[in-house]
Design goal:
mainly alpha; 12 helices; 204 residues
Length: 204
């Protein structure tokens, strides 16, 4: 498999249709993504960068998202989770406000580089519930891609915990947000349909 390069990242973003300034920002963000995710793999054994690229593709082709900053957020949504030390680099190249959005999408124990402890899950759910619509859309797209990719995970306990969290929190969160705009309405429908399909397959 050929390594992912900057041109592929820019193409997946659809940035060739953006303004000159937006295209420059896309290339900066793409370079950062290549740096931040480099050397990281998912538990499925795949290069980590494949996941945010899949989330971008989902948002563009299935939900109809075209807003550059939302797609750049999708590209880097896990940057501070896999490499919290990259925050200074992200602030320098993409600005404090953009990086603050990434912080709001990242669990505190990841930012603080420590094991998960009592109370962290409650705080993490509160952070996600407080996200503005575009950022919440990216988080739900992340959940949707993870759900579609769940069968490739070799960890049955991770699969069980993911589905429980989806049932208990993310599906109700999508329910509550569906009236905030057509993109969240479409995401709500996709997430529920994929969850129903997955649970039916598990029962077989």
């Amino acid at each position: 498999m050929n390594p992912i390069g900057l041109d592929r990242v820019v193409t997946v973003l659809g940035a060739t249709a953006w303004s000159t300034d937006e295209q420059h920002r896309a290339r900066v963000a793409g370079s950062l993504a290549l740096t931040v995710y480099d050397g990281h793999t998912r538990d499925q054994g795949t290069p980590y960068l494949e996941h945010p690229l899949a989330v971008i593709t989902l948002l563009r082709t299935e939900i109809g998202v075209t807003h550059p900053e939302t797609l750049l957020l999708a590209l880097l949504h896990d940057a501070l989770e896999v490499a919290p030390e990259s925050e200074v680099l992200l602030v320098h190249h993409l600005g404090g406000p953009f990086t603050a959005r990434l912080r709001a999408m990242t669990a505190d124990h990841r930012l603080e580089r420590r094991p998960k402890s009592v109370g962290d899950e409650t705080r993490w759910r509160a952070k996600q519930a407080a996200l503005p619509p575009a950022d919440l859309l990216v988080r739900l797209a992340d959940r949707l891609h993870n759900l579609r990719d769940l069968g490739a995970s070799p960890n049955p306990d991770r699969r069980r915990r993911f589905l429980q969290g989806l049932h208990d929190f993310h599906l109700p969160l999508a329910d509550a947000a569906r009236g905030l705009g057509p993109h969240l309405e479409a995401m709500h429908a996709r997430l529920h349909a994929e969850y129903a399909r997955h649970t039916q397959e598990v029962r077989r």
